[in-house]
Amino acid sequence: MNGAPHAWRIPAHPRTYPFPDTLNAAYVCVDQWVDRGLGDRVAYYVRPETPPAREVTFAQLQRRVVRFANALRSLGVDADSRVGIFLQLTVELPIAMLACARLAVPCSVIVGDRLDETDFTILVTQDEVVRGGRTRPRKADVDKTLTRAGTQPRSLVVLRRSGARVPMRAGRDVYWHDLVATVPDDPRSCPCRPQHPPHPVSRRRCRYIPDAGWVVDPTDGICGPLAEGMASVLHEDVPPHPEHDPWERVIRACGVNTLYASPLGEPRQARA
């Protein structure tokens, strides 16, 4: 951070952080923990619909964010660009968000099953939606929506989620894994500036995020826990019948002690 050091103090209320006027969310959420020797901390317990489950540390997350940020730069993303992110609750969703933050590029996280906005320079989506043991088109639906709207992004990045073959438009569409394959992941290749003084190290907690569709989730649900150095559970599964409450299974397995969900997504016991 440029200028005089910012005097840091622990806030009286957790939502009154004395942030300076300028900061970089990617540094606050990821880099600061690596810089402070906490890169081995788990940032995400990823629980996809289909195994295997995996863990992503802050150091691994940093390199994946840097790699995708460099990939976006290779597509010509700059301060005048606008990135749309239309993904399920996979680890690639926060990676794409933080990559945009690292580049200081505005992004919109599109939730639900419908693409309501189309005015993007870059659009990030996936081949198909995997939900409840079934798949349904996502890339094909995006193509139809863009055609009806009469607008086209300069580039459309497609994450292989189900592995299904989808139509790819030459000169516009590119698979995520192909895009990141040839760019560096060294944080020095894509520094995030400005930076601000370190956040106080929090007591270790784990947050469970089973619902990405609520209004504040992209900020409160994704950036909030990372800025605190907390681990989160990214869970895209749906309750298999007749299991009464799969949340308890995931909460116990990952040691969750903070639950974040929309009112409609709360466990039955919490709504009772």
From TrEMBL:
Keywords: Acetylation. Residues 38-108 form the AMP-dependent synthetase/ligase domain. Pfam families: AMP-binding. The keyword Ribonucleoprotein does not apply. InterPro entries: AMP-dep_synth/lig_dom, ANL_N_sf. PANTHER family: ACETYL-COENZYME A SYNTHETASE, ACETYL-COENZYME A SYNTHETASE 1. This is AMP-binding protein. It comes from Pseudonocardia hispaniensis.
